[in-house]
Amino acid sequence: MTGIDQDRLIQTCQSLLRERSLPGEEGKVARLLEAEMKDRGFDTVWVDDVGNVIGKVTGQKSGKSLLLDGHMDTIVVTDTGQWRHDPFGGEIEEGAIYGRGAADMKGALAAMVEAGAYWAKHREELAGSLYITGSVSEELVEGPALAHVLGSLKPDFVVIGEASNLDLNIGQRGRAEILLQTLGVPAHSSSPHLGINAVKKMARALQILAEVNLGGDELLGPAILEVTDIISTPYPGISVLPDRCQATLDRRLLPEEDEASVVEQISSILAQEKSRDKDFRFEVEIAKADFVTYSGYRIQSSKFAPAWKFPMRHPLVKMAYAGLKKAGLEPKFSAYSFCTNGSASAGRLGIPTVGFGPGRESEAHTIDEYLEISSLVMAAKGYIGLIGEVLQDTTVNGNSNGRRGAKITI
Predict the structure, then answer these.
(1) pTM score, two decimals?
(2) Which of 143, 190, 201, 359 would suit a FRET pair with 166, their CA atoms being 20 to 30 Å apart?
(3) pLDDT, position 394
(4) Mean of the per-residue pLDDT values for the chain?
(5) Residues 149-199: pLDDT tens digits?
(6) SS3 per-residue string spanning the chain
(7) Rounded to whole angstroms, how far apart are CA atoms 373 and 384?
(8) Is a pLDDT exceeding 70 seen at residue 403?
(9) What are residue 274's phi and psi, to 5 degrees?
(10) 342 touches 172 (CB < 8 A)
(11) Bridging pattern class, strands 288-292 and 298-302
(12) Residues with Cβ < 8 Å from 154, sequence gap 6 or more?
């Protein structure tokens, strides 16, 4: 068996980086990804109503189904003058590829396609179905676009390709976007005693919330509540007390937390202030996402992405680890600190999920974002090994438990 095509892997990564793909503008990347999958021998490649690109490689033996997901969209580049490299150039310097999305996460997509191409050539060793998806709009809200694919394909296992430093991530904190509003009574600012200043009430609310211990998880770390923006009404306020103030809160979630419990937690904490201050009025809700993808599909969902984790003894975790080891990696067990599309697969649907990808979390969304070529190559090898271990033939008695890993040469 031949190994991976390293030159083509690098070229694919560069090609993806050279196409801008903000949420809602992933069309060119989608077409590029679709063409590459078809050219590399995938059995079937299609684009769904949402705009997600899906490629399938079918093994010659029956078995489980495994889906590898990477999102095609990136965040905006607003600081091009500070970049040493063209953010859409895919330039290579000193063993690294530079560009917006290199680490988050077009490098992982290129590596997944390379792994799919490998198994398309060696499907006789594969049992079951392999799916690779390029999903849309993850940077807007984690999960809803991928959930559309998962609902259709119903895979047995999922791998999220977000940057993991080539470690095996077995969980992630979730994320909720919360809208907190304090309500006031307008009055002329020369006579503030005649009204109620909603901004001052918000300042008090944020002070109270900042002192709350939200708990933590041994693997995932602490729950977090952070203010990301504040705006008052009317704006600009000229000689008038604001009658409404809204703050957006970024809440990093732990397993078992749901929308109702998160809203109730904040509401109950602030209700204590209301009992002391009759003029303190507030409203709390989870923010809503409402947007149209590049394909014209409208997505409406709450901005709530659940946390998830799986134990090291879980069958998928054990298989993934074994596959990465066979590929020559030495992965550690870890977890994502940021949120991923795993919130759809594991957090909402309960599908066994792990994370594995090239690059580091700290490289995402940065000026001069880059990905080391060595990490890109090892990710492709890791995906090949992981796929071979999960989608292996279980009908032969190759060892004591009746499992025989697929042969790989990488």
Answers:
(1) 0.92
(2) 143
(3) 65
(4) 94
(5) 999 999 999 999 999 999 999 999 999 999 999 999 999 999 999 999 999
(6) CCCCCHHHHHHHHHHHHCCCCCCCCCHHHHHHHHHHHHHCCCCEEEECCCCCEEEEEECCEEEEEEEEEEECCCCCCCCHHHCCCCCCCCCEECCEEECCCHHHHHHHHHHHHHHHHHHHHCHHHCEEEEEEEEECCCCCCCCHHHHHHHHHHCCCEEEECCCCCCCEEEEECEEEEEEEEEECECCECCCHHHCECHHHHHHHHHHHHHCCCCCEECCCEECEEEEEEEEEECCCCCCECCCEEEEEEEEEECCCCCHHHHHHHHHHHHHHHHHHCCCCEEEEEECEEEEECCCCCEEEEECEECCEECCCCCHHHHHHHHHHHHCCCCCCEEEECCCCCHHHHHHHCCCCEEECCCCCHHHCCCCCCEEEHHHHHHHHHHHHHHHHHHCCECCCCCCCCCCECCCCCC
(7) 17
(8) no
(9) -60, -35
(10) yes
(11) antiparallel
(12) 65
pLDDT > 90 in the chain, percent: 93
Question: What is the C-alpha to C-alpha distance for residues 357 and 163, in angstroms, rounded to an integer?
Answer: 5
CB neighbours (10 Å) of residue 48? 18
Of 128, 131, 129, 112, give the one whose Cα is nearest residue 63.
128
- For 240, the token pair is 């008038």
Among 141, 133, 147, 151, residue whose Cα is nearest residue 30: 133
What is the chain's length? Answer: 410
116 Cβ contact partners less than 8 Å away, ≥ 6 residues apart = 37, 40, 42, 55, 57, 68, 130, 132
For Cα atoms 257, 104, 304, give the angle at the middle one, nearest 5 degrees: 20
Which residue in this structure is represented by tokens 């880059």?
370
Amino acid 220 reads L
pLDDT tens digits for range 105-163: 999 999 999 999 999 999 999 999 999 999 999 999 999 999 999 999 999 999 999 99
Residue written as tokens 């953010």? 87
Candidates 405, 386, 342, 362; CA nearest to 172 is 342
> Residue 398 pLDDT more than 60?
no
